[in-house]
Structures are given as C-alpha cells and as structure tokens.
Design goal:
The chain has 600 residues and is α+β, with helices and mostly antiparallel strands. Among the domains are: 31-70 and 335-472, Glycosyltransferase (Alpha/alpha barrel), CATH 1.50.10; 96-322, Glycosyltransferase (Alpha/alpha barrel). 40% of the residues lie in helices and 14% in strands. Strands 24, 25, 26 and 27 form a 4-stranded antiparallel β-sheet that branches. The radius of gyration is 24 Å and the shape is globular. The relative contact order is 0.14. Its cofactor is Ca(2+). Pfam families: Glyco_hydro_47 (PF01532).
C-alpha cells in the first residue's frame, strides 16, 4: 500500500553492504562469538552493579560501590584546554528524588543484547518516575542527546521489544510524549537573535537571567536528528525548524576559508574561541550534518558538510592526522589528536570515503596500541600524552568507527581493535562493582566514576562489531508492516541512524505520521507516474523532507503529474531534494521483493 512505498524513500539511498559474516576473521584466529559473549558479560557486570549499588542516582561510582548525581560529560567533550565545565551541569534529574540517566541511556542497549523483559521493566519504571517540571539547570546538548534521543529510540523500538503499544503508535505513545515534553523544556534556549541556542536552560523557568551567551559549536549544531524525528512523529514543525535555523546560523558564520571555531556568542555571533578542528566542541555538528542529510534525504545539509570537508582536508589534515588550526588564517594552533576525534573515520565511511577513513583509523589505532586506550589528548609530533589529559574514560569513538568500517570493508584489523578494547577494558578498568574510568593510561590509576555512555555507546558498538546478524544491521530483507491512522507503514527494515549518544533512530518511522492528506504519498499516484514513463526513459527518485515523488524527463504526458508534484511541494520547498543516481527504467519495478511489470 501507500505506506510501504512511503517508507522506501528513507531506505533507497542508504547503502547496505553484505559480505559473508566473519570474512578474514577466522583466518586470524579471532573467535567473534566468544568476544560477543564477553561484551555481553561486560554489560551485565556494569548494569547489575549500577542497579544494585547506584540506582536511582545518575551514575555508578565503581570504586566505592555507590552512586552519585553527576551529569555525564560536561557538554560535548572536554571543551578547550583548561576551560571550566559550563554552569548547571551537576544535577539534571530529578529533585526531590534522584532519577537515573543511566537507565534511559542503557535502555536500547538492552534490546540490542536481546533482553526484552528488562527493557519492558525499565520502560514502566521511566513512565512512573519521570517529571521534567523541576527547578534545575540542564545542559541543552546533554538533555537532547541522552534524554530526548534515548526516549525517542526506546519509543521506536518498543513494539519490537514486546511492549503493548497504543493504537496510534509510532505517532503516539508515553515515551514519545516524554521525549516531546523534555524537548519543549529546551525550546526557550533557542530564542536568541541568531537562532543559536544557549548552552544551559532551567527546566522550570527557561534561560536564567545572566546566563552566559557563549556556547560551543557542537552545542548549537547537534539537534537535527532528534528534533526532526520529533517533528515528523508529532506533526509539530517547531522542533525541526529551530534545529535547522541553528545549523544554518553556524554555516552563515563560517570563516572566509570555510572553517568554524570552537565557541561562539549566540547573541552577537562573534567567535570567542577560534580553534578549528574536528574534535571536542565541534565534533557532533559535522556528524549531524551527515546524519541529518541521510535521515531526511536532504541535499542542502550534505552539501554543507562536503564544503566543510574540503576546508578540513585543506587546512587541518596532515599525513592522515587532523590538527587544530586558527579558523581565519589556517595556521596550526594545537598539533594534538583528541580521543573524541576518533568518530571521524566512521563518519567518512558514511559518505563513502572508505580509503581515507581506514588510513586515519590506523593512525588512531597505533595510539590505542601504545597505551591500551586513547588518552584524551595526544601530542602528535612528540608521540605522547599531554599533561593532565592522560585519562581514558572508556569513550566509544574509536570502537564506533571500527563498527562502521567493518560493515563497509570486513577488514579483520577492525575486529582486532574490538578484541584489544575488550582485553584492555577488562584488564585495566574492571573492578568488583563495575568498570572504572582510567585516570592515567601511563600507570593505570583509576577514577571513581563510570560514565553512562559506557553502557549507552561503548558496549553497544563493541557488541554490534561482533554481532553481524543483529537486527540493527538489517539490510532491508526483513521488515514489519504497521497500520497507523495515516495508512500502512514499514518499520524495522534497517538503515538505522545513530544519534551521537548511540541511540538508533529508524528512518522509515519519519514517514509514518503524515497529518495532512496533500502530503500523503499514495501508491496509486506513484504507480500511475511510473507507468506513464516510456521504456528506457531516464528517471530519478527524489525525496523531499516530508514526502516522495517521481519525476521524469519532461513530456506532455507528464505535465499533469508534474503540476500535482509542484502543488504537493509548495508547502515545503524551502530545502532542496536529494537525488539517487539516475538509472534506466526497463518496464519493471521491484518494491521490497515484489516485482511489478508495466502491463500489470
């Protein structure tokens, strides 16, 4: 039906590469199944001790076997050297009682490991225990990626996990309402002259008087994945609109040589920190341009990223390393590699630049082998750690890149990084009550902290690296058909887009909840347009951000359908379309395995 074709738009342009599982790995004697089980055991060692010793606090303190209400990473990574954490990040949720962010963060990992009963239990706990109407200062960035992202992902996966869903799901549901409520609390931060948000917001009162207007680039550009998903599911465009406006404001304020800095004043649009690079303070802005382009099939976001990519290659790349440079002059300011930058090879693989991605990955892997982890900062010319930045808080980024690159290449070296990660995390950081952050990679001193991203990201990417048959890796050969108030809808067909906290979003879900008749992509219209095409005429599938259509070479027989397409497009013509490569149309169309001939 119409819904089945509607959902195809998200999947047609996402590549799915299939190779026999474990290619090359067996030859090197790496037992993938046994490492997968060790990763599963790591998750439960950490998760069970969190529930036993720390719940309902935000995080586990593994050395003292208790909990604390600290609020994750301070903004997107450690920020500038010596910069204090932004104000208001020390306790987000939830007074008068604690609420555990680790539960939201670890929820979809439970399902990826196949634990439906615990997933269902946690969903019930969250529905009963969460209240966002509290007088607390929260990081806008962190609340979005962990709370909004975690709730959206859990909402979209809940039917797969056997949760009884409402009749209107995925266009309604308790977890979606919670995600929307949390996101609404963040909207006051976006009310600035530039559309770039403040970094901190009070959940009850909005932006505090006297709040600093300086926000890091990632804290401005890391909303489109969650906010566009919310807009598409709820029908309220405000979320996607503010996220797009913030992205475009950063683009408008790039330097003449095409670079963005680290921190900007959201009132005046003046760059406060002018270091340009791919790491802390900037990282997920670039990530969300690519992932937003894939999720929304949006050509404008992708072309923005590709322009940045050129400037990054021209000014910051040296011998497959990336340095920090002055954003206006391009002169090197810090010749360091930050562990947060290790997401970059995975991002390059998403745009198909696999050779460059592998070369950079192998550089980063040499650092891992030198220390048994990635130090927060690594001085490239000296080949050693940077003072006071010798720690490894069990970050996921290098493992994340290995997971993406392994899907693309099946190179066994990537499994070897996974093996090394399991071995060193178990050897260095495993303690009786969980896994402790490594304070110093030189002498293996530990910190009394287990960040929630360890369960949300590090363990998840490790497991997915070693689990080639996981449902997350679905290539579209299996799917679920769901009946919604707006027609039929295909879900769980693969092509998942991970937010920057590793919460997977099903791109097909964005096409389930069309509220307006004129925006519906009806199968009859589509088939009529396909069959009106002459044999072997070129055609292009185009996908707008809110519906799909087929266009062909202009001819009199196409005029009426083209006019209808224009009418449908007029409401949302503000951003351009992303085209898949043109191909000959040979009187045959296969849709999810069913073949239609032009005489049917």
């Amino acid at each position: 039906g119409g819904g089945m074709l509607r959902s195809l738009g998200s999947l047609l342009c996402l590549w799915a590469l299939w190779l026999p599982a474990g290619t090359g790995a067996a030859a090197r004697g790496l037992d993938v199944a046994s490492y997968r089980e060790r990763v599963r055991a790591m998750f439960y060692h950490a998760y069970e001790h969190y529930l036993e010793s720390a719940f309902p606090y935000d995080e586990l303190r593994p050395l003292t076997c208790d909990g604390q209400d600290t609020w994750g990473r301070y903004g997107p990574g450690p920020g500038l050297v010596g910069a204090p954490p932004p104000p208001g990040l020390t306790s987000l949720l939830f007074s008068p009682h604690s609420f555990s962010l680790t539960l939201i963060d670890a929820l979809d990992t439970l399902l990826i490991l196949g634990n439906v009963s615990e997933f269902q239990r946690v969903v019930n706990v969250l529905q009963e225990g969460v209240d966002f109407d509290i007088d607390v200062n929260a990081s806008v960035f962190e609340t979005n990626i962990r709370v909004v992202g975690g709730l959206l992902s859990a909402h979209l996966l809940s039917k797969k996990a056997g949760v009884e869903v409402e009749a209107g799901w995925p266009c309604s549901g308790p977890l979606l309402r919670m995600a929307e409520e949390a996101a609404r609390k963040l909207l006051p931060a976006f009310q600035t002259p530039t559309g770039m948000p403040y970094g901190t917001v009070n959940l009850l009162h909005g932006v505090n008087p006297g709040e600093t207007p300086v926000t890091c680039t990632a804290g401005i550009g890391t909303f489109i994945v969650e906010f566009a998903t919310l807009s598409h599911l709820t029908g309220d465009p405000v979320f996607e609109d503010v996220a797009r406006k913030a992205l475009k404001a950063l683009w408008k304020n790039r330097s003449d040589i095409g670079l963005v800095g680290n921190h900007i004043d959201v009132i005046t649009a003046k760059w406060v920190a002018q270091d340009a690079g791919i790491g802390a303070g900037v990282d997920s802005y670039f990530e969300y341009l690519v992932k937003g382009a894939i999720l929304l099939q949006d050509e404008e976001l992708m072309s923005m990223f590709l322009e940045y990519n050129k400037a990054i290659k021209n000014y910051t790349k040296f011998d497959d390393w990336y340095l920090w440079v002055q954003m206006y002059k391009g002169t090197v300011s810090m010749p360091v590699f930050q562990s947060l930058e290790a997401y970059w090879p995975g991002l390059q693989s998403l745009i198909g630049d696999v050779d460059n991605a592998m070369r950079t990955f192998l550089n980063y892997y040499t650092v891992w082998k030198q220390f048994g982890g990635l130090p927060e900062f690594y001085n490239i010319p000296q080949g050693y750690t940077v003072d006071k930045r010798e720690g490894y808080p069990l970050r996921p980024e290098l493992i994340e890149s290995a997971m993406y690159l392994y899907r693309a290449t099946r190179d066994p070296t990537l499994l070897e990084l996974g093996r090394d990660a399991v071995e060193s995390i178990e050897k260095i950081s495993k303690v009786d009550c969980g896994f402790a952050s490594i304070k110093d990679l030189r002498d293996h001193r530990l910190d009394n902290r287990m960040e929630s991203f360890f369960l949300a990201e590090t363990v998840k990417y490790l497991y997915l690296l070693f689990d080639p048959d996981n449902f997350i890796h679905n290539d579209g050969s299996a799917f679920d058909v769901v009946i919604t108030p707006y027609g039929e809808c295909v879900l769980n067909a693969g092509g998942y887009v991970f937010n920057t906290e590793a919460h997977p979003i099903d791109p097909a879900a964005l096409h389930c909840c069309r509220k307006h008749k004129e925006e519906q992509w009806e199968v009859e219209d589509l088939m009529r347009e396909f069959y009106s095409l002459k044999k072997n005429k070129k055609f292009t599938l185009k996908r707008a951000s809110n519906h799909g259509e087929v266009t062909s070479g202009k001819g009199p027989e196409d005029a009426s359908s083209e006019k209808e397409g224009e009418k449908r497009n007029s409401k949302k013509s503000s951003h351009s379309l992303l085209s898949c490569p043109s191909q000959s149309f040979n009187s045959k169309l296969a849709v999810l395995g069913q073949v239609f001939l032009d005489n049917t």
